[in-house]
Specification:
By secondary structure, the chain is of the alpha/beta class. It folds into three domains: about 130 residues, no CATH class; about 160 residues, FAD/NAD(P)-binding domain; about 90 residues, Alpha-Beta Plaits (2-Layer Sandwich), CATH 3.30.70.20. The strands form nine sheets. Strands 10-17-11-12-13 form a five-stranded parallel β-sheet. A three-stranded antiparallel β-sheet has the order 1-2-7, with no helix packed on it. The longest helix has 24 residues.
Length: about 475
């Protein structure tokens, strides 16, 4: 990110949201709302004095509630740009409690960069191509897994919470502790497939990365706390890529991680301990483990606004709200809308190497478009016979790609197809009551000719046979 921010050909819009996308490949019109951060980026030096002076502390979203942040804060360490933002939902200036604060951040800022009067800014820009890389979210296990405590037990955390603990700049300074009392855990139970491969409470697909990061976290637990014991409950181990299987075996053999094939049926509190009830399906017997900490490998799911993004970009998604590629084998990073590409976990769960591969492929596809003055299009697109078009514009309502606009011909308003957007689906041709729209290569005459051709050949063979 730091290198990207210094490149003169790259503009980074942080704390911003895409509100509207119109146009087509090579000519996208994008409206961006740059939200008011209440800090002048040109003046801010990133000293952090404003955050230290702020009297408001709330749970940090970045640390998933394990740590605190101020009302004026930098979203996460090493953020680019290193400029804080004011959360207006908790800032006392905006919650009508100014007298309790007295604008402490304004007084603390030597550069005079804090300004509470800043407003949102609307930016309109043109782009030749779009790469969608909206990332993922975690399955809300608290709402569906009451048998695991449903969020009532502080020491039942997700793997992302555990990852935040491991960070040296994280809320615990890199130390693995129990959130309830701050003590180091001795027995830690990792539970896989929480929300994954579960049609009744989660999603039926495999999240793909849980087996590997659970093994990694179990190893790091032993390296941080040598006397700790890690247990892993799993359904199947899906370590299918290069050296992945060896990595899981290393966790078991070299670090003593105990893997148990089976589901966990219940977690409940017993004094300071958590009792994990499960079953060893290989041994065919029930199990109970008293744990100090339980780590859940929760399912990867799309962002909550994935359907809105898909609607705005006119790209399809599946029943799980994962964006759909044009072809899973031949066009794995392209969407059906020409000029819009997919990268990362917005398309499907994937690990870091695969995300890098898909991102590199999407970048290469973009370069392939922008490096040419003209585009090669598929010939099977719709065309309008303006002499027959009645101007009912029924086709504009059914086109899923918004490829049909209107033009004026001989003082009549008729339909017009934008060739670079049209995907040749034929919906408009089937809808047109006047049969004014046809697909190139699929006119009535051409289709009838294809149907008639085999019968002509049969008739010719019969004539030759009779003549012989």
């Amino acid at each position: 990110m730091v290198e990207s921010s210094k490149d003169k050909n790259i503009t980074i819009h942080t704390y911003s949201e895409v509100e509207q996308v119109k146009g087509y490949v090579g000519n996208f019109d994008v409206r961006i709302r740059k939200k008011a951060r209440s800090v002048d980026m040109s003046k801010c030096t990133g000293c952090g004095a404003c955050s230290e002076a702020c009297p408001v502390s709330v749970p940090s979203e970045w640390d998933l509630g394990l740590g605190k942040r101020k009302a004026i804060y930098t979203p996460f360490p090493q953020a680019v740009p290193n400029v804080p933002v004011i959360d207006r939902s908790v800032c006392l200036i905006f919650t009508k409690a100014k007298e309790k604060c007295g604008a402490a951040c304004v007084r603390a800022c030597v550069a005079k960069a804090v300004t509470h009067k800043q407003e949102d800014e609307i930016i309109n820009e043109k782009f030749g191509a779009i790469v969608v890389a909206t990332g993922y979210s975690l399955h809300p296990w608290e709402k569906h897994y009451g048998e695991y405590g449903g969020g009532r037990y502080k020491d039942v955390i997700t793997s992302l919470h555990f990852e935040r603990m491991l960070q040296a700049s994280g809320p615990t300074g890199g130390h693995i502790i129990r959130p309830s009392d701050g003590k180091e855990p001795e027995n830690v139970v990792f539970i896989q497939c929480v929300g994954s491969r579960d049609e009744s409470k989660g999603v039926p697909y495999c999240s793909g990365i849980c087996c590997m990061y659970t093994a990694k976290q179990a190893i790091l637990l032993k390296e941080h706390i040598h006397d700790a014991q890690a247990y892993v409950f799993y359904i199947d181990i899906r370590a299918t890529k290069k050296n992945y299987e060896q990595f899981v075996l290393r966790a078991q053999r070299d670090y003593g991680v105990i893997y148990t094939r089976g589901r966990v049926s219940k977690i409940y509190q017993k004094g300071e301990k958590l009792v994990v009830k499960g079953a060893d399906t290989l041994a065919g017997m029930p199990m109970e483990i008293e744990a100090d900490l339980v780590v859940l490998a929760t399912a990867i799911v799309p962002q909550t606004d994935a359907a809105d993004v898909a609607r705005m970009l006119s790209i399809p998604h599946d029943q799980f709200m994962l964006f759909t590629e044009a072809h899973p084998k031949l066009r794995p990073v392209e969407s059906v809308t020409r000029g819009i590409f997919l990268a990362g976990t917005c398309q499907s769960p994937m690990d870091i190497p695969e995300s890098v591969e898909m991102g590199s492929a999407a970048a290469a596809k973009v370069c392939g478009i922008l490096s040419h003055d003209q585009l090669m299009l598929e010939p099977t697109i719709a065309e309008v016979n303006t002499d027959r078009c009645s101007g009912c514009l029924a086709c504009t309502k059914v086109c899923p790609f918004e490829a049909i606009t209107t033009v004026t011909v001989d003082s009549r308003t008729v339909s017009n197809v934008i060739a670079s957007i049209c995907q040749g689906c034929g919906t408009c041709a089937a809808t047109c009551p006047a049969s004014a729209i046809t697909l190139k290569g699929f006119t009535n005459e051409e289709i009838y000719s294809q149907i008639e051709a085999p019968f002509k050949k049969v008739a010719e063979k019969k004539e030759v046979a009779v003549g012989a």
